[in-house]
Design a protein that fits this description.
Shape: extended
Distance between the termini: 81 Å
Oligomer: single chain
Strand content: 15-25%
Structural class: alpha+beta
């Protein structure tokens, strides 16, 4: 066995020889345990949360009363055989996670066998080394069966007797013949699990349009459906090229600020026509956080576009309901309405080569002219 082996199981760096995760914060599947420093008592649940590959998690009962901490590698019950996972959560916070995941507390859970031994690690290492080879061979077999599916990844069980095949398919696929072929060729139990485009993008990873690592590849574990209503709520243009992520679906980050936009919109008046002596003003757009609204005197064109504050719009609506038509849409030019943000964009103001240091030419050192020495050299 190697002295140090790197194995990714929901963790960017796993050290086998230490039998423990290198750092609890490096994992995208890690959970902040707010009761970590609290001492255990009689009421502390004997349930632990265990993480595996590809954002897979499960809850197991610690019936043997083992002293487990977050990051420990353990052997757990599987059907059949045993599997090896990494403890991601212990203590009181496990019950809260079970409520979030919708797992009933009274459910019969599988048990934790033991902490990993040297034999378990050897079997696990051998099983993991087969994953990439089996995946590539399975893709070729799926093409031979003319199946409209893509094998995204393969996850072997800790004892190497079972494997989960993750696949992507737009339609329903009949893979019964494929399962028989794989079982006879690799001599293992087969389980097929379908994943979506978002899970596939999180597995592959990449850099988003914001310049940072994809959220699904760094910290997101559960995916909430994103609709075009979230973009409309934030007054975004429905441009599919800008709203779509690398998975081809709407970006997950569209859901991050929807609630704040809804709260800010509570103070906004309805988007109706405003009647003034200048004419009818039609709603065009609004800036939610700056509380500004744009109105135009033409229904289909941007002509005589006027920026009004939300308070002014409310006053005009009240006057129109009373039958009064104000003289002007905007009473006076308010410079604060279109106040520029405090920050300044410095992109492009400086040269790209501004950090390149120009090498200064060194002046050659010339020896001072000595008349006596030069005279002696001439006489020689």
């Amino acid at each position: 066995m190697k002295n140090e082996i790197n194995i990714q199981r929901g963790c960017s760096h796993q050290l086998i020889n230490k039998k423990q995760c290198c750092n609890h914060s490096c994992s995208k599947l890690s959970v902040y345990n707010q009761f970590k420093n609290y001492p255990s008592n009689i009421n502390t649940p004997d349930i632990v949360e265990v993480r595996f590959k590809n954002t897979r998690k499960a809850f197991y009962k610690n019936s043997n009363k083992l002293m487990l901490t977050e990051g420990d590698m353990i052997a757990v019950e599987a059907s059949p055989g045993h599997d090896i996972g990494i403890v991601s959560l212990t203590g009181e916070h496990v019950l809260e996670q079970m409520k979030i995941k919708g797992v009933p507390i009274n459910e019969e859970l599988k048990i934790v066998y033991r902490k990993v031994k040297a034999i378990d690690i050897m079997k696990w290492e051998d099983a993991i080394s087969r994953e990439n080879i089996v995946m590539l061979k399975t893709r070729k077999i799926a093409k031979e069966f003319n199946l409209n599916m893509k094998i995204g990844d393969v996850e072997f069980q800790g004892d190497g007797t079972k494997a989960i095949f993750y696949y992507i398919a737009d339609e329903r696929v009949d893979f019964r013949g494929l399962i028989k072929e794989l079982a006879s060729k690799f001599r293992i139990r087969i389980k097929m699990k379908q994943i979506g485009a978002r899970q596939e993008a999180g597995r592959i990873g990449g850099i988003g349009s914001c310049g940072r690592e994809l959220c699904c590849a760094s910290w997101m574990t559960s995916f909430i459906s994103v609709t075009t209503d979230t973009a409309r709520e934030q007054e975004l243009s429905l441009n599919p090229q800008k709203l779509a992520g690398q998975c081809g679906k709407l970006k997950c980050c569209l859901n991050f600020e929807v609630k704040s936009y809804k709260d800010a919109k509570k103070d906004f008046p309805p988007k109706i026509e405003l009647i003034t002596q200048e004419g009818k003003a039609y709603y065009m757009k609004s800036d939610i956080y700056r509380k500004l609204m744009w109105y135009s005197f033409s229904k289909h064109e941007y002509s005589k576009v006027t920026v009004i504050s939300v308070e002014r719009v409310k006053k005009i609506i009240i006057l129109n309901e009373k039958g009064v038509t104000p003289k002007l849409l905007k009473l006076e030019i308010d410079k604060n309405l279109l106040k520029q943000p405090d920050y300044k964009s410095v992109i492009g103001e400086d040269s790209i080569t501004r950090f390149d240091k120009k090498k200064k030419r060194r002046k050659r050192y010339r020896k001072p002219y000595n008349k006596k020495s030069s005279y002696k050299q001439k006489r020689k």
